[in-house]
Amino acid sequence: MIILRNHFNGNDTAIYGDVVSNGCQTFHIYQLDQVCKKFNVPEKTKQEVIKYHQENLGKDDDINADIFDTLQTENNATLNNAVAFATTNELLLEKMLDYFKDDEHYPVRLIIAERADISATLVQKLAHDPDPNIRTAITRHQNLNEALIKRLANDEDCDVRIAIAKRLNINDQLIQKFSQDKEWRVRYTIAKRPNINDDIIQELANDKDPDVRIAIARRPDLSDALIQQLSQDEEYDIRYVIGERLNLNDSIVQKLSEDENDCV
Question: How far, in Å, CA of 130 to CA of 126, rounded?
């Protein structure tokens, strides 16, 4: 491993195996060109990373090694991030989650949470993390069990519930629950789901929030009765969306062509 002190924008850069971390971004070395272009990194800085990565080749061959003592000794945020991204040592990741549990080390836990290869044990631990961004990241894991999905569906944070509402494998009971969520953005997420039942579509077509009704108005599976209803909605944005639909019947076309709002 190599740590370049105050290397870019006042941040250290750490190199561990084929991973680079600079305090803002953590990525594989093959992504260096892409990252440098995105963040306008000077060519000199980029070449320094390439140089030191070459010097480090072969020194971190065993990325399964437990280097927890080194992390404690170095106490370097960029190195922590690089190891969290690169290591294949499950025990080391668990130690890092337990040790870096304060707000300051939130990025370490987020990097681990966003890994697709972590075990069900670590997923379980991260699903109880105090930071909602980390719980949101965990909702995207394919190996969430039913108990965790149910727990996160009842999370106090709206973004966590939205992320669960976007999962394709939630059951009808949760879809029904989310369609009545106190936060409009959760109901909006359900309104955009494919294959929700007619009762929920009808309920959301009468939602108090216009954005939810707009999402319903855009559905390709809308019944003639709801098209008729939404073509008379008090919000012109909703009437506008209905006006964009193909194959409207003549009476709705006539009505919307006479709408008081020019956009409609």
Answer: 9
